[in-house]
Amino acid sequence: MTSTPAETTRNDTSEADEWISTHKESINERYRLGYHLMPPVGWMNDPNGLVYFKGLYHAFYQHHPYTSEWGPMHWGHATSTDMVHWVDRPVALAPGDGSDRDGCYSGSAVVEGDTLNLIYTGQIFNTGDIEPFNSDFSESQNLAISRDGTHFEKYAGNPVIPGPPSDNTQNFRDPKVWKHNDTWYVVIGSTSAEDDARALLYSSPDLHTWQLEGNLAQSDHKIGNMWECPDFFELDGMHILMMSPVGLEADGHRYRNVFQSGYIAGDFDYQTLQLAHGDFEELDRGHDFYAPQTFEAPDGRRICFGWMNMWLTPMPEQKDGWAGAFTLPRELKYVDGKVTMTPVKELESLRGSVLTDCERSVTNGDVIVSPDENRFELLFSVDNLQVHADNLGLAFDLGNGIKASFVYDSGQELLTFDRGGKDGERSWECGTLEHLDLHIYVDNSSIEIFVNNGLATFTSRIYPTAPARVTLLSSADSVKAGIQSYALN
Ligand code: FRU
User: Fold this and answer.
1) Is any atom of ligand 1 closer than 6 Å to the C-beta of 174?
2) What CA–CA distance (Å, rounded) separates 430 from 224?
3) Catalytic pick from 12, 17, 46, 288?
């Protein structure tokens, strides 16, 4: 794993950039999204290095440009002035140098003076077989630096953290860095020698030399055996450790995806470096939400993007030369003991023609909105749920017999999104709801449903063949509903 400084600073992205520019026109557009960040061509997974630097929002992502399958990981890159409209930038990191020979895995970005610093995991497969679930690997933490926000040089002293402590397995990845007072901290996803998930904490005066401080938190065999993509931040006075646990068994309506993502919330003491925290809570209730990462916008908002897909599940767009997308940017808040997610206000700039704007009585089967294109936003609200039906919700006719629905069942106290097909349902035990306020974004092959001001979200990929026709599902005679909807540009 030793390397010469010349090797470690190479970061030759030209081959990847060349490939992207000659192949991006060749993809099939049928499932492309209109206002979400996607790779121009090839594969995308986790959001990486979300940051605001020199007047622009920067988003990086796990990227394999050459095929629509996961492969040797690069960092794709896009910038935006508003988190909504993105411009593709040259690839930021290419693997192949010393400690990142087989991949530049997930990580984060921080601004130090006038430099943008990427901290990422360098991946080496000891057997040389590059595939995502190959279990014989070595992981280290590495640094790359840019002054212009476009070109990145790998630090000649890489790796800055060569490997995990001795009481760890080889799982040691996805560094998320932040600064508190004058000290840098990094949290790293890992698995202890007892096969327990944990978040390791290191500190540094300068991003180059790091000292192990211990566990920020551990699973105690309750929250899986590996926490991918940990993130640690303060939110409305609480300390939140967000992570994507691997190895959690399904439990009733919870943990139904292949891997999960969620958080624990509590109080962190910077003197003792201890986090006193509550129970694990899932962040999103849909099928396609993983590896969320947050950053602080210049105005102090805590913004989160997730990967809008799930490992080991079908991705029909792979046939079309690409795969993967980010969720919409979401503002996080901590309200009544829960992290809430709402779409950022900048998304209002997408609004085109008003499709509906009324408050009226509707009955089962009534059309709520029937847009010309599958790029729309729908706000749907009903008060006094208790005097209404047992079941209330929306049906989505997506063409060719493809159907989806979102329903509140007051008897079972469940909210359920059903996208149809095998394993189509995802539910959240919502308790008794007084009112239902749905804020829904459909973008061709995605749906994001924000419930009651972000108390719950459901994020899923859907594969329609026609613009959605949305109708009311209700067991009551009639329901008074507020309905607003917009075509989105
Ligand atoms: C999460 C993850 C990370 C890793 C990356 C590899 O989806 O498995 O742990 O860094 O993807 O692409």
Assistant:
1) yes
2) 24
3) 46
